[in-house]
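Dear support,

I submitted the protein below through the web form. The confirmation email said the job was done, but the results page showed an empty box. After a refresh the structure appeared. I'm attaching both so you can tell me whether what I see now is the final result or a partial one.
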Amino acid sequence: MTTTILIVDDSTVSRMVLGAIIKEHMPDVKVVEAKSGDDALIKVDDLSIDMAIIDYNMPGMTGLDLFAELAKITTIPRRALLTANIQDSVQERAEKIGVVFLNKPINEAVITPFLFDK
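What the results page shows now:
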């Protein structure tokens, strides 16, 4: 069974970098990219998502808001929130709902531990 990873970030460059890192380490993975929370909600319809890596700061809804909306329609076993704004309140909210907090900038050292941490 193919692993499916959802990447949501309003930055095209961030999505490309993240996707490239993931594909380098997991060549058979299916990557679903979305540019916003609304876009992600449309794209995950009827999909089984194994992991989600979502940016916190996006137009429309935050990454935490998106996780709340996704929880209404699907179960995503492994979830991470990406942000450069390290605010204790955001980190606490993420941890409270079982979302791993990952600091930007996106790079291999930040992403790979999340991909392979069971």
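Response: this is the final, complete result; the empty box was a page-load delay. The chain has a mean pLDDT of 92.
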